[in-house]
Amino acid sequence: MDEFNKYKDGSSLPPAAPGQPRYLASKETALAVNTALAAELPLLVTGEPGTGKTSLAASISWQLELGRVYRFDTRSDHVARDLLYSFDSLARFHDAQIGSRRALEVGAYIRYEALGAAIVDTINLKRHRVVLIDEIDKAPRDFPNDLLDAIDRMAFRIQETDQEFMAPPELRPIVIITTNGERQLPDPFLRRCVFHHIPFPDAEHLQRIVHEHFPEPSPIYEAAVARLEKLRKESGGLLTRQPGTAELLAWVKVLVRSLGPNPDTSQIKSGQLPFAGVLLKAQEDLEHVLRASA
To answer: Contact at 8 Å (CB) between 202 and 260?
Structure first.
């Protein structure tokens, strides 16, 4: 990880293989990733739904050829240990009750979770690993601070067996943390992260994303991007959920299949919104857009 520009933005990537769309990071996002790699700190990513926060981890792993992403989907009942390992005490109790010899093997009931598995794999496989901690703001308030030691040292101890694992300093797992900004994260945790906000892509970037997924040329793409931008701009803060990139790609797929090879894009550019349920996911949003287009 000695090259600062290890992770490339979308404009620096070689042409994609047919049928294999890639994540097209902006130059700012690529810079943030490389900064986190150089600083050996987690990358904390914010942005509205549909801006690619979660997909960024997979893109890093793919570009750097690091294998699968170790993903942890945060819940409100999680504690910090859940990110490292779990111990199936109920299964051990059951085995002890029936007299199974397996109950004597404490390690048989331990399962490594996302960060713990990544740390163990760096030791065994001598390779970097990518960990995604998704929507950390959903966790209890103490969860981020309880992770500080594990993130600082990239080490943890299993209480039940008194085993300790520490990643080699040169092979620290690459940690990507996403947050929807639902609540403020603790200052001690923020000081140990590189922060990056992914804004919603502009029209040019959206066009490139669409062409990445739909390589065959069509006037639908430009019309769909223009209508999405118009919808987001005119609705302002009136929509309960603004349509994002994922909705745009699904909408384009429906438009291509429904309008055929010689499409009339006038209905896309103005008037009633065709296939509005692909873009809008709340009844009040549908009603608002239908009233505005009428």
So the answer is: no
Alpha-helix runs per DSSP H in 101-154: 114-125, 143-146, 148-153
User: Domain range holding 190?
Assistant: 10-197
DSSP state of 200: P
Give the domain-ending residue among 166, 197, 228: 197
Assigned domain for 1 exists? no
Sort strands 174-178 and 155-158 into parallel, antiparallel or unpaired.
Answer: unpaired
- Express each pLDDT in 159-215 by its tens digit: 889 899 999 999 999 999 999 877 788 999 999 999 999 998 999 999 999 988 888
Whether residue 269 sits in one domain with residue 222: yes
Total structural domains within the chain: 2
Each residue of 99-121: pLDDT tens digit?
Answer: 888 887 878 889 999 999 999 99
Any bridge partners for residue 158, and if so which? Answer: 163
Q: Does 242 map to a domain? A: yes
Give the Cα separation of 10 and 1 in Å (integer): 20
pTM here is: 0.86
